[in-house]
Design a protein that fits this description.
A hairpin with a 2-residue loop joins β1 and β2. It is built from four helices and twelve strands. It starts with 7 loop residues before the first strand and ends with a helix. By secondary structure, it is α+β, with helices and mostly antiparallel strands. It has two domains: 78 residues, Elongation Factor Tu (Ef-tu), domain 3 (Beta Barrel); 82 residues, Elongation Factor Tu (Ef-tu), domain 3, CATH 2.40.30.20.
């Protein structure tokens, strides 16, 4: 479980498909300490397990399903990825509950400065839009953000300069894919409503 408050960004050193699956190597920054083999790290919002370590280089194994569902398919060497360690019982809950289980990838439509802040608009599936409400929470590449605008096919959030400086959003541009995780409670409610409607219809 995570908060959606990115701790740092790391640099992709290698992303490669092997016979057994995909391997991702990330160079960890100095501020990301205290992790060990087998720990969970949210990488661009996707919960991954540390499989191998060598100095500040950390390796993760990814399933084909993970690559298919997320934006990792387009990751390149030297890309910056958002990093967050899993919650501790003593951690302050500053964002919202993020599981690290990415629901789908969205596409950046607009990312631009507006006044002192930044405006980000992302398109996603109609099914995904059903889980969002204005002022609700959404995790974009593992960043806990507040939905400011909604339409049938896209949503928008506002970003403060600190978020742009401390995350990989400063490298994003229109057309880029980002990982999306919808609010956990909204997904549970949606599932229960679907089950009830199916039962009533039957």
């Amino acid at each position: 479980m995570f908060t959606g408050l990115v701790e740092a960004t790391g640099k992709v050193e290698r992303f490669e498909q092997k016979k057994a699956g995909f391997e991702l190597d990330v160079k960890m920054p100095a501020k990301m300490d205290g992790y060990s083999l087998g720990d969970s790290i949210a990488v661009n919002g996707c919960c991954l397990t540390i499989a191998r370590m060598s100095g500040d280089l950390v390796s993760f194994d990814l399933l084909a399903e993970t690559v298919k569902r997320t934006s990792f398919a387009g990751v390149r060497e030297s890309d910056q990825v958002n990093l967050e360690r899993s919650l501790l019982p003593t951690t302050r809950m500053g964002g919202h509950f993020v599981t690290g289980h990415v629901d789908e990838s969205g596409t950046v439509k607009v990312i631009e400065p507006r006044g002192a802040d930044y405006y980000l608009k992302i398109s996603c599936s109609r099914e995904g839009m059903a889980y969002m409400v204005e002022k609700g929470s959404i995790a974009v590449d593992g960043i806990s953000l507040t939905v400011a605008e909604l339409s049938e096919e896209d949503f928008a959030v506002w970003l403060i300069p600190h978020t742009m400086e401390e995350t990989n959003l400063k490298e994003r541009s229109a057309g880029d894919r980002v990982n999306l995780e919808f609010d956990l409670l909204a997904k549970h409610v949606g599932r229960m409503l679907d089950a009830r409607l199916s039962r009533d219809a039957g």
